[in-house]
């Protein structure tokens, strides 16, 4: 089965004024309604907004979570069959706090989405989309990353390795063996946002940043330059300095604290994943520290692995119904949706509300979270 992923920036802003014909397609023209307010989401918010952002590590009760969740699912309902099975998660730092709230959010089962297709279609209009969730599960991000890694890396005997995920909001890590996850090695701490904050404070000493928020500075951080006051400022050397400082003061101490010499002795490889794994300055520092005793490797397409891990967990809880499985990583910087490609695409957008199924009472299987049926997560 081939996995496909769709992604968009995890930012939004209240919509004002005319937004017609401002995008080429739905993914780049996301305009979602919550309560009585319309929001620009993702790339449309970055282009058409002034201060697009989101709360970092938002709880499921906050509007950020619902807006981004519905925007992600809107890009999925024409690619999967319903009712669907979905897996989501949180960093270890917030997992135990937010898990119950996320399960309550997903247990609504029926979701309606108000959205505007005039952003990318001359003949567009305000529409409603609908999707049903049959089964769901909430798991730690690093567990999903390890599942995604095992399904992606072409190593049949992949055991005894350390996985480290560099996210915008948090860095996650842990050691996996053939028997499962070693929980005492799991950690969650400051993500790339830490380095971006230091860069912002340094830039503010010499430049007027026009009140750019951390997501806008993050874009400049990735590009290696920032345009402000009609000048382009090269950030590559400054980026290297703050990333090395981040590794020295955050990452390296975490590796020393959570992994023993015996762990390192048994470890066959360290895999780096997450969007931050694209920064060569960071991965080179990792390689340099462990070059004498453990190989370090950047996983293929590291920014997609957590979402892919969620997808394969959804496949498990759906009783292997690939066409009904979705993995959704609502990241602090990027939201990534994964699904299995189908031979025949689903053509209902938005899907019609089925009369018979709507009238019938929900079966026990449709209202029981997956965790109550099968609590074993196979790594």
From TrEMBL:
Domain Actin-like protein N-terminal: 5-141
Ranges for region Disordered: 347-368
The organism's place on the tree of life at top rank: Bacteria
Record field: compositional bias (Low complexity): 355-368
Protein name listed in UniProt: Actin-like protein N-terminal domain-containing protein
Organism from which the protein derives: Chitinophaga jiangningensis
Lineage: Bacteria, Pseudomonadati, Bacteroidota, Chitinophagia, Chitinophagales
């Amino acid at each position: 089965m081939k996995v496909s992923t769709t992604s968009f920036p995890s930012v939004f802003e209240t919509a004002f004024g005319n937004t017609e014909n401002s995008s080429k397609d739905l993914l780049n023209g996301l305009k979602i309604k919550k309560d009585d307010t319309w929001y620009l989401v993702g790339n449309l918010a970055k282009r058409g907004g002034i201060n697009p952002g989101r709360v970092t590590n938002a709880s499921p009760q906050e509007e950020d979570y619902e807006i981004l969740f519905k925007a992600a699912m809107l890009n999925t309902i024409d690619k999967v069959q319903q009712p669907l099975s979905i897996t989501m998660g949180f960093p270890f730092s917030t997992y135990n706090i937010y898990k119950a709230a996320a399960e309550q959010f997903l247990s609504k089962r029926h979701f309606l989405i108000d959205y505007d297709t005039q952003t990318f279609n001359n003949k567009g209009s305000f529409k409603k989309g609908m999707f049903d969730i049959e089964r769901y599960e909430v798991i730690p991000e690093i567990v999903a990353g390890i599942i995604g890694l095992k399904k992606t890396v072409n190593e049949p005997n992949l055991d005894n390795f350390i996985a480290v995920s560099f996210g915008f909001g948090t860095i996650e890590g842990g050691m996996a063996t053939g028997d499962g996850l070693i929980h005492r090695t799991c950690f969650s701490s400051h993500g790339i946002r830490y380095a971006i904050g230091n860069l912002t404070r340094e830039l503010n000493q010499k430049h007027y940043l026009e009140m750019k928020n951390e997501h806008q500075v993050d874009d400049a951080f990735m590009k290696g330059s920032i345009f402000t006051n009609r000048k382009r400022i090269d950030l590559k050397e400054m980026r290297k300095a703050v990333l090395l400082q981040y590794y020295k003061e955050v990452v390296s101490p975490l590796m020393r604290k959570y992994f023993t010499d015996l762990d390192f002795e048994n470890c066959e490889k360290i895999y780096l994943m997450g969007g931050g794994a694209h920064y060569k300055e960071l991965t080179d520092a990792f390689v340099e520290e462990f070059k004498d005793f453990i190989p370090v490797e950047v996983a293929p397409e590291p920014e997609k692995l957590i979402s892919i891990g969620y997808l394969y967990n959804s496949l498990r809880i759906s009783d292997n119904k690939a066409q009904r499985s979705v993995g959704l990583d609502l990241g602090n910087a990027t939201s990534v949706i994964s699904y299995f490609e189908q031979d025949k695409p689903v053509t209902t957008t938005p899907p019609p509300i089925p009369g018979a199924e709507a009238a019938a009472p929900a079966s026990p299987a449709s209202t029981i979270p997956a965790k109550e049926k099968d609590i074993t997560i196979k790594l």
